[in-house]
């Protein structure tokens, strides 16, 4: 226990609480800015099993705020889940870490997130949070929502059966919500650590059964303009909520295709996700498309550059088309360079 001695000396945790942390299972969805800080905190705190899930790879623009990554990860075209695993394994070899390069959707969310004591939100989009919420409400798993954009941060602790759920706060389906993102409004690095650290504190309270100390508010603050607002979250429950009141988990319904084609807001990128799970031989793909343009590849992805566009192929069949936010243009490129 020497590694955790300073944490154990904190009375609300103590040796008993540390043992609970070491026996816990935590999942983190999204390993960008918030997720990379959350993963760092969870590994250093000594969680027993950590699953880290992300669909993207490390790019140079990430390095300003995504503290787990460095320039070698950019040069290596490493998926964030892989780069994070490499770094986290050096921090604490006692933690069992399962890294998953995948896009959370209605076909895989329950398999990836059920059976955990806690789920932490490191994502940057509403649809994924609605999916997380459906899984957690259905299986009674607490999860902690977090958001950071510009200089504005937000977080909430969601405990199924005890508090309002995410759909109580945001009833509108995600495709109708238009909000700022880091790619449209920017973000300052210190905000990331503040929001994720608040999430991590609440996570430690849950993992050590200090439920009475959980923050009952939805916190919203602007660190640049020194503003702070909070909403009494428990009183925000809606009696007609589709998820926590009616148990209608529509975002887990495999017959509903939510995200076969998605515009990644502010990134000038369209993502194509196959509706049927498939496994791509990236080595064969790299050979087959080598005559089409400049190809860079590793065992995780293949990147094809055809000026002014770049196509990024993943082994699970997902394809990112970078260089356009027009779905018609992306469809045409997908049909030409990917096929059926």
From TrEMBL:
Keywords attached to this entry: Nucleotidyltransferase, Transferase
Superkingdom of the organism of origin: Bacteria
Key word Transferase present: yes
GO cellular component: cytosol
Keyword Transferase: yes
Classification via InterPro entries: ThiF/MoeB/HesA (IPR045886), ThiF_NAD_FAD-bd (IPR000594), Ubiquitin-activating_enz (IPR035985)
Sequence ranges assigned to domain THIF-type NAD/FAD binding fold in this UniProt record: 4-242
Family to which the UniProt record says this protein belongs: Belongs to the HesA/MoeB/ThiF family.
UniProt-recorded name of the protein: Thiazole biosynthesis adenylyltransferase ThiF
Source organism phylogeny: Bacteria, Bacillati, Bacillota, Bacilli, Bacillales
């Amino acid at each position: 226990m020497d590694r955790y001695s300073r944490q154990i000396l904190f009375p609300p945790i103590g040796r008993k609480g540390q043992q609970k942390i070491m026996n816990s299972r935590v999942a983190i969805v999204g390993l960008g800015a918030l997720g990379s800080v959350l993963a760092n905190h969870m590994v250093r705190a000594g969680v027993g099993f950590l699953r880290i899930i992300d669909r993207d790879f490390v790019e140079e623009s990430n390095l300003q705020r995504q503290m787990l990554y460095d320039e070698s990860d950019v040069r290596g075209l490493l998926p964030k889940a892989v780069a994070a695993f490499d770094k986290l394994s050096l921090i604490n070899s006692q933690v069992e870490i399962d890294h998953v390069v995948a896009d959370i959707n209605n076909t895989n969310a329950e398999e990836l997130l059920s059976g955990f004591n806690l789920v932490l939100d490191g994502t940057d989009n509403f649809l994924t949070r609605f999916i997380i919420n459906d899984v957690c409400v259905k299986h009674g798993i607490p999860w902690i929502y977090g958001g950071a954009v510009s200089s504005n941060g937000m977080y909430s602790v969601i405990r199924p059966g005890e508090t309002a759920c995410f759909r109580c706060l945001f009833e509108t389906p995600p495709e109708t919500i238009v909000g700022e993102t880091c790619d449209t409004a920017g973000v300052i690095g210190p905000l990331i650590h503040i929001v994720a650290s608040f999430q991590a504190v609440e996570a430690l309270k849950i993992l050590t059964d200090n439920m009475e100390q959980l923050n009952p508010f939805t916190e919203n603050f602007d660190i640049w303009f020194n503003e702070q607002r909070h909403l009494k979250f428990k009183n925000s429950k809606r009696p007609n909520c589709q998820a926590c009141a009616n148990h209608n988990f529509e975002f887990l319904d495999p017959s509903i295709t939510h995200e076969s084609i998605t515009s990644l807001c502010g990134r000038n990128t369209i993502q194509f996700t196959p509706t049927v799970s498939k496994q791509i031989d990236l080595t064969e793909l790299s050979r087959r498309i080598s005559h089409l343009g400049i190809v860079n590849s590793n065992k995780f992805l293949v990147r094809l550059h055809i000026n002014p566009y770049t196509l990024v192929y993943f082994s699970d069949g997902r394809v990112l088309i970078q260089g356009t936010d027009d779905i018609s243009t992306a469809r045409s490129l997908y049909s030409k360079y990917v096929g059926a």
